[in-house]
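Long-time lurker, first post. I've been practising inverse folding by hand and with some scripts of my own, and I keep getting stuck on stretches where the structure tokens seem ambiguous. Below is the full token string for one chain I'm working on. Before anyone asks, I'm not after the true native sequence, just a reasonable design that respects the backbone. If someone could post their per-position residues I'd love to compare against what I wrote down in my notebook.
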């Protein structure tokens, strides 16, 4: 039942001891405010770190030929390694059970123009499956397909930023012809990419078209692989290492030559991301726990002082007939009320500060520094419980003191 007289006494006590109440509340408010901001900024660092590696599919590896740095099997160092189409058949034959898609990729810089607008862009010659690796999504038209590949069609899929640069607003690029380095290509689609503006300035054509027009050969600059998603991180890393080892043997590259044939395996990146994310979590947890402990110690000391300060008051209450239970109840309710209001205030201010400073933190690699309100509420409840416990123990002792002793102690 709601005890109106009890709450009236609590508010009277608060009103008579404004400084004490403010100090108690500020301890809780500051602890929750600091906890919220630190937790949010820690999450912002994690978000930034994860965003660096979210531009491509996680189950991807990129294999790139280069110049050798070691002499091997009669070959001098400095020899340039070049992949060819037949390497694709070799990889599929030996590792097909581990591969979802294998993609050839050649790249060059060209001028692309439409009407009187022109700029320089990357032109990427690929197999159609690049769409799944880059996570590119057409927003008009389509992506290049197998028929384009078979017919060596002069078609192009342009990025959102390329379309924005070259085409008037509101005009569809699909079906239009653009000048690509002096050759006319038909635009069959435009795409968006989670990698942002730079990725949306890429432009894709069939690799067979590029091999026919620009080299009249079967050279491949880079081999990209999407390995099967059911491979564990360790299995994917082992697969990548084994594949590079076999390719080095195939091209007479020394096993210890780190440049002749290189691989970037997203499995290793994912593994590193998890480790770094775990480390960031640990740092945030340690800092947050430290903040809460400081808040608990602060509110505990204040509650102990408050009860000691009110020893004379409690003695008078007992002399007037107040029971130990009612005295303890009054102190606990007062502690609960102050810590609840102060904790909520700290939460609101903390969330507000994070929202206000969030845009300016991106340049410091802190992206979207938000917090789960449930975690902050839990921390607030923890501080409230700590404050209640801290007040209960001295209140219980004080409630047992005889009135005459309490009055003399004052």
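-- Answer (accepted) --
I ran through it position by position. Result:
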């Amino acid at each position: 039942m709601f005890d109106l007289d009890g709450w009236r006494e609590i508010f009277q006590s608060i009103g008579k001891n404004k400084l004490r109440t403010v100090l108690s509340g500020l301890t809780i408010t500051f602890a929750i405010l600091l906890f919220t901001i630190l937790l949010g900024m820690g999450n912002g660092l994690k978000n930034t770190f994860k965003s660096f590696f979210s531009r491509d599919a996680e189950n991807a590896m990129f294999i790139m030929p280069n110049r050798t740095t070691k002499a091997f099997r009669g070959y001098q160092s400095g020899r340039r390694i070049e992949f060819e189409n037949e390497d694709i058949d070799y990889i599929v034959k030996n590792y097909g059970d581990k591969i979802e898609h294998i993609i050839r990729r050649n790249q060059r810089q060209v001028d692309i123009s439409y009407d009187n607008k022109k700029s320089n862009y990357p032109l990427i010659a690929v197999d159609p499956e690049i769409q799944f690796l880059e996570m590119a999504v057409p927003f008009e038209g389509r992506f290049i397909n197998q028929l384009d590949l078979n017919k060596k069609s002069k078609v192009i899929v342009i990025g959102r930023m390329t379309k924005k640069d070259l085409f008037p607003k509101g005009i569809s690029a699909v079906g239009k012809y653009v000048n690509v380095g002096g050759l006319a290509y038909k635009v069959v689609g435009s795409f968006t990419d989670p990698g942002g503006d730079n990725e949306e300035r890429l432009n894709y054509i069939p690799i067979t078209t590029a091999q026919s027009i620009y080299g009249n050969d079967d050279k491949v600059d880079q081999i990209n692989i999407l390995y099967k998603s059911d491979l564990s991180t360790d299995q994917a890393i082992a697969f990548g290492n084994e594949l590079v080892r076999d390719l080095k043997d195939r091209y007479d590259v020394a096993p210890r030559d780190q440049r002749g044939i290189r691989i970037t395996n997203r499995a290793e990146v994912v593994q590193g991301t998890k480790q770094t994310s775990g480390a960031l979590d640990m740092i945030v947890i340690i800092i947050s726990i430290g903040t809460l402990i400081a808040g608990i110690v602060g509110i505990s000391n204040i509650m102990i002082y408050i009860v000691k300060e009110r020893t004379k008051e409690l003695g008078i209450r007992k002399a007037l007939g107040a029971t130990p239970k009612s005295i303890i109840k009054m102190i606990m309710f007062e502690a609960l009320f102050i810590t609840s209001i102060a904790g909520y205030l700290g939460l609101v201010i903390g969330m507000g500060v994070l929202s206000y400073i969030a845009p300016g933190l991106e340049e410091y690699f802190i992206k979207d520094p938000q917090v789960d309100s449930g975690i902050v509420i839990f921390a607030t409840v923890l501080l409230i419980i700590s404050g209640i416990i801290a007040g209960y123990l001295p209140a219980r002792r004080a409630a047992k003191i005889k009135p005459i002793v309490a009055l003399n102690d004052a």
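A couple of notes from the structure itself: The chain has two domains: 4-52+272-409, 82-250. The first strand starts at residue 60 and ends at 65. Happy to go over any region you disagree with.
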